[in-house]
Amino acid sequence: MERIQRNIIGIDLGTSNCAVSVWRNGQPILVPAADGNNLTPSVVGLDDDGHIIIGHRAKSRLTSHPHLTIASFKRYMGTEHLFTLGPHHFRAEELSALVLGKLKTDAEVFLAQEVTEAIITVPAYFNDIQRKAVKAAGKLAGLKVERLLNEPTAASLAYGLANHSEQKFLVFDLGGGTFDVSIIDMFEGVLEVRASSGDIWLGGDDFTEKVRQWMLSCKPQLSDAPSETLAELARLAEEMKCRLTQHPLASCSLGWQGGTLEWELDTPTFAQLCEELLTRLKAPIIQALHDAQFSLASLDHVVLVGGATRMPVVRQVVARMFGRFPRSELHPDEVVALGAGIQVGFMLEDKALDDIVLTDVMPYSLGVNVARQYGSRYEEGFFLPVIERNAFVPISVMKSLSTLHDNQQQMDIGIYQGEARRIKDNILLGSMSVPVPPRPAGEVSVDIRFTYTLDGILEVECRVAGEDTMSSLIIEKVPGVLSEEEIHQRLAQLAALKLHPRDASVNRQLLARASRRYEQFLGERRQIIDHFVTDFEVALDSQDVRAIAVARQQLEQVLSRFDDGLE
Ligand code: ADP
Ligand code: MG
């Protein structure tokens, strides 16, 4: 039988830099760009002949041609924001598609093979709309994007593969524009992201900005300098920052009005300038640990990812906070791409990855709009989470809602993403309208099921209780990213998930056994059983696999103790 060769590349599509890897001979290797560099700047520009240029060539003109060069556009993925480049107007996904196109072509030259598929990494904090935009960018670049992978998950794959023993670690990813914290649990070859948190407005570029502001404050005469001079100043600020990574002191000079302006910056002053940024690194770490219910002391490792973690001031904050030195044996700006390469290997079903199972968490809560009752009055616009932040994905959860008005003809369901109490503060993902039979208020209930897959596709199904017909909606913001056929395929995959845990036979049997015992016993033993059955039912309603397992075990223990006649 002929084996079809699939050429899949793993891509770290960063705010500042991109890197590409492939799976070869049981391990991931980096694919250098045509210019020989492992990193390709995520910069798009226009040259003097009006041609689009991408990567290092574009970045080198950031200073000289600031109006013909665009950088750091990843933050705008999934928004309507338009960038102007000479006569052209681009959305962030189109700029990303240009960069992805170059990465694809460069990889094809290096591999001497056509590349048709890719796994692209995204920050854990990217919401559904941003994830769809990344997929759309891949498609525009002629790449079939099989899967998106959270960047910290990719990094932990790169670090975790070598060691199959039990361990817990934290991935600290400070790139050019975003900060991601993830808590990873690895046991028996299963790698699990237990929680993720971060700050999408914090990165190495902000440290550069502090240096630039300091340079300006030292030489106030530059405040109304021409834009070329100010752009040159920004480039110097970046250089100074990077030099301080290697040396305790950095200096630079700039030609100005026939003379020379000079600066000298030492490490303590730099640390002082960045104090506010360094403080901001702490909150997401505390949040992630809290969400994962892990203590600092329970972590076995802290892993550094992202070029900005090269800075000693950042490493010091991490070391102080965790009381140990973080792991950084891999280049922090290549780790994510290497992890994507491992995921490529996983997809190609290479033997080297047979016992690595990947699970993930969802970074945002997903839910619907509901009304709340105040006395006899209803107030609309509240958010009811259906799948909560940091739930394990893939996941499928059901909630029931009742009608609000007499003879209501339909129920309008808005689907939102976010953490706020009111829907107006969350992001609207889609909406659907479910016809309901006209009855008195509260008599008709609609079951709403949310099913969320590993690559961030949300399916919402609504069924009027007692009826067979079902309305369903796939939240896929960018039209045409999924073909009809792919949607059917995905639906088939999802079908396996849709059993409520209450209906799983092991849980049903245990509940039946407990209620038999409850009926048999009296007094204290009856109360104890009642207590543990209630806990188990609450866990079943939460549809959280872990909580169910814990509550089930407790109830089982109590029942066996009573069965053994020990009490
Ligand atoms: P992203 O993932 O956002 O594309 P990277 O991981 O490539 O970003 O990190 C880019 C950031 O790392 C930039 O802000 C850059 O200034 C910073 N950086 C790279 N090398 C160094 C260095 N030697 N010292 C300090 N900062 C660095
Ligand atoms: Mg990155």
UniProtKB/TrEMBL annotation:
Highest taxon listed in the record's lineage: Bacteria
GO-annotated molecular function: ATP binding; ATP-dependent protein folding chaperone
Sorted UniProt keywords: ATP-binding, Chaperone, Nucleotide-binding
Gene3D superfamilies named among the record's database cross-references: 3.30.420.40, Actin, Chain A, domain 4, Substrate Binding Domain Of DNAk, Chain A, domain 1
Assigned protein family: Belongs to the heat shock protein 70 family.
PANTHER family per record: HEAT SHOCK PROTEIN 70KDA (PTHR19375)
Full protein name: Molecular chaperone HscC
Protein source organism: Enterobacillus tribolii
